[in-house]
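During data preparation, a discrete fold description was generated, and the record follows.
___
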Amino acid sequence: MITIRKFLVFAIVAGFMASCNPAKFDRLPGEKMEIIPIGIQGTYEVNLNMMESATRDSFFININDNSIKQITRLGIEENKINEQFYFNRLNNFYLIGTPDANIKSLWNITVLEPVANGLRVYYVLEEKTKNSQPSRMMPYLSDREMPLNHEPIIAMPDPKGGMTTPPLGNGDSNSTLKYMMMNDEQFANYFDRELRGKEFILLKKVKTNDKKSKKK
């Protein structure tokens, strides 16, 4: 199972939706925000179907003005704005941007859409399609390719000692990696027409004023 603490919480949540890789972009769209808006702040409960046997797991996410905390039975993991992630606004939705795990100059994007009972979380995934079926993203954004060895990827040491895990790729210097060229207006069109209301995980907002109301 994926180790939760190694990744920003929204990336992990969406990772249960599909086995696809995150889409990679040359930049983040929209207006960069220095604090998370108050309308996004709060505590949210996340329930995930972990297996087909209906075994469930749940945890909480607390969002304040400058960080996102993931609260599980293992403890609390905090990610801070402008350190582990960046927070942008585009039209009437928000984006969390994180550097790609392998190519740090590229970005992965998670979209947050506020709704009445919480947040809809959309993780923008790299679409695997057949040659006869073009990617849904292609009509909106153009793609580029770079050599896989564009940036050095440090090999991980073998925990047993001796050998190291090979860097990403098969050693072929001609291997390439595809990424998308960001266009704010076209990305907004892509989200509105292809993702909004269709492919999301709902984070349900937890009411925190119950105790106060009982004292009255």
Summary: The chain is about 10% helix and 35% strand. The radius of gyration is 19 Å. The helical segments are 9-15, 184-195, 210-215.
